[in-house]
Amino acid sequence: MSTFLQKDNNKDLSSIICISSVMRDVKDRAEFHKETNHHLLLLGDKGVGKKFLARYIQKANGKPAAELDGSVGSEIINELDKVKEGTVIVSRVDLLSFNQAFDLADQLKTVTSSNSKVRFVFTSRSLNSGINLIRRALTPGFTIVEVPTLRQRREDIPALSKMFLKHYTYKNNVHITSFASEAMNKLCRFSYPEGNVKQLAKVVERAVILAKGKIINEEEIVFESEGVATTGRPKIGLALGSGAARGVAHIGVAKVLYKHNIPIDMIAGTSSGAMLGSCLAAGVSPEKLEKIAETMSWSKISKPLFPKRAFLNNEKLARYIERIIGKKEFCELDIPFVAVATDVHTGEEVQLKTGKVSDAVRASAAIPVLFEPVELFRRKLIDGAVVNMVPASVCRSMGADIVIGVSVTDFTFSGGPPNNLYGSVLYYMDMVMKRQVVEVENQWADLLLQVDMPGMSPHSFKHSKELIKEGERVAEEAIPKIKELITAWQR
């Protein structure tokens, strides 16, 4: 973290900023462990705030003992002999050689077996064999807490930026009140590959110095001097939105992107977008998906239920996906992929990126009322469109420099709701989700492709050919803009 983040007397940092659910979880775990004697490993990328969190736990515990650094190597062992009680922070423990870690693990066994009043909080960017030795030496009572990157907690960026603004305006004795909306959007979109929160702090500090007025404008947010590469190729993310049967239009978009050699480095999908996205991530060609779409039907992906909490079960969808891509797990996909679902109890977004792909797709496409919730990872999940209809924000969290969002939702609402249950539920979901797509376009996606064919029902697959053609048409029109975005990034 930047220097001022290390000052205990800074009142802005009396609590950890945790608007995002992922950071709230980290803080909750920190609050829990500050009262225990568990040894902790705070694991995370450069600049995510591991040391700050370690100091937060140490201070909250009320018994600071020592703060050591892995760069000093074997000297850590000599320092441990002086510790009698309290919380010891050992930063950057991954810098220790295997032999040094072996000696430290042996010493830790001695210290903890003879003195239960000492607890350790380690920080590391990664796991290695040396850390595993330390872990075994302190087991049981050793817990790993993963600290998220800034890409994974983008909801916190506005609050963090305002906090840094307050600090640096005071430090530089200038009067700057806020960020222009375009400037804040730029801060929220950036991937922060070179330092996470620390990098954000430096960017805001530079903006304060460059600012010409009381409001920081977009051109005063500069990332280049942070060491971010401005040559080569940007990472491109494809965010495929929900839309039930209209989701086949994603196939047309993919065909055009592939034809023009637009690289896709990561894919995030919601509902039908997760279905098509998982297949693309597994290496299935758009042409093959187009043939599959010709015979698509609801009976192939769902079966009726005796009405309790829903009318349909979509377990058949998982089997259907497996017939196309096999029983792949996320780690076996050719392209990084995330399926978005919603926790039915908390209403929170759930990003599915581990385990079987088919199960994740099934959860992402569990349309409320129509389909019963899907239980995964001890959570009951429903359609991701409830919280994130076009998951451009997820592509950002995956590290995309440029995000292409694809919405296949019809916002004309012509003719009113259909005269059947399936169509009516999908119709009203479209109406409710309209505001989400506007937010995606304004904040997360660099380009939002809207495949809009009035009258094409989301509950019928009979118009698949027309929808795919429309997807192709919309994507072809967008190719010049996509190439322009790539060129602008490379400058």
Outline the fold blueprint.
Blueprint: H1 21-33, E1 39-43, H2 50-61, E2 64-69, H3 75-80, E3 86-91, H4 98-114, E4 118-124, H5 129-137, E5 142-146, H6 157-171, E6 178-179, H7 181-189, H8 196-210, E7 215-216, E8 236-240, H9 249-259, E9 266-270, H10 272-281, H11 286-293, E10 303-304, E11 312-313, H12 315-325, E12 337-343, E13 349-352, H13 357-364, E14 374-376, E15 379-383, H14 392-397, E16 402-407, H15 421-444, E17 447-450, H16 464-490
Parallel strand pairs: 1-4, 1-5, 2-3, 3-4, 6-7, 8-9, 8-16, 9-12, 16-17
Antiparallel strand pairs: 10-11, 12-13, 12-15, 14-15
Helix pairs in contact: 4-5, 6-8, 9-11, 9-16, 10-13, 12-13
Give a structural overview.
- The chain has 491 residues and is an alpha/beta fold.
- The protein has 3 domains: 21-148, Rossmann fold (3-Layer(aba) Sandwich); 152-220, Orthogonal Bundle (Helicase, Ruva Protein, domain 3); 236-488, Cytosolic phospholipase A2 catalytic domain.
- It has 16 helices and 17 strands.
- It has helices at 21-33, 50-61, 75-80, 98-114, 129-137, 157-171, 181-189, 196-210, 249-259, 272-281, 286-293, 315-325, 357-364, 392-397, 421-444, 464-490; strands at residues 39-43, 64-69, 86-91, 118-124, 142-146, 178-179, 215-216, 236-240, 266-270, 303-304, 312-313, 337-343, 349-352, 374-376, 379-383, 402-407, 447-450.
- The strands form 4 sheets. Strands 8, 9, 12, 13, 14, 15, 16 and 17 form an 8-stranded mixed sheet that branches. The protein has a 5-stranded parallel sheet with strand order 2-3-4-1-5, covered by helices on one side.
- β8 (236-240), α9 and β9 form a beta-alpha-beta unit.
- α4 (98-114) runs parallel beside α5 (129-137) and α9 packs antiparallel against α11 (286-293).
